[in-house]
Amino acid sequence: MESAEIARAETERGEVVLRRRTSEAAADVLELRVNGVFVMDTLETTSEIELAAQALELVERPASVLIGGLGLGFTLQRVLADPRVERAVVVEIEEPLVQWMRDGTVPHGPAILADTRATVVNADIAMAIAEARSTYDLVLLDVDNGPGYLVHAANEAVYEEQFLRRCRDLLSPGGVLVVWSAAAAPALLEALREVFGHAEEQAHDVLLQDRPEKYYLYLARR
Q: What is the DSSP letter of 117?
């Protein structure tokens, strides 16, 4: 396997790096790392897509969607593929990542962000949720690797009851919250059940850098 760095930025939270790798199994795979930790790539995107797909299936009219975490754009892309969606707001804390998506450093980025229904807000998700003045039919959170594999310790609050209650308050009646995690998170499931009364854990099989793994989605409906 060969890899090469194609973009790097230093922010107040540390280092954000975009790399391109090739192997016998796949050529020209983009990989995102934050502070040296693998976050995602363009080869295994099923769970990022399912984050949106599962929620979209549960709501009859998902007109307004809030996404926490831009990543490499696959969750947003799936949301925008649904003609019922009228507005998709993405909150991303790392401005360089937004820029790489806009300027074509991530080749598929400009086409996704060109959709007039999409708005990208460069902000911390906790602040954005706290200051939100409108409601959403779906809230999709993929802001870290989950409570068990945090890249940034400050994101711990995103998986706790107080923040989840604020997310619930933002949802329209019947609206759905989905949280992505790289590992099973029983405390998160318990917190969601405390806030919503019911929540579901889904395990998704993925192939991560040629290794079979499981990623998890946590779903709750208002």
A: T
52-65: average pLDDT = 96
Residues 125-155 have pLDDT tens digits of 999 999 988 899 999 999 988 888 788 888 8
* pLDDT tens per residue across span 186-213: 999 999 999 999 999 999 988 776 678 8
Strand-by-strand arrangement of the 14-22 sheet: 2-11, 14-22, 29-34, 37-41
Q: What is the mean pLDDT of residues 29-36?
A: 92
Q: Are 84 and 63 in contact (CB under 8 A)?
A: yes
Q: What is the pLDDT of residue 24?
A: 66
Give the domains, in start order, of the chain with CATH numbers. Answer: 43-221 (3.40.50.150)
Nearest to 194 by CA among 163, 150, 152: 163
Distances (CA, A) of 190 to 142, 159, 219: 18, 10, 12
CA dist 4 and 26 (Å) reads 15
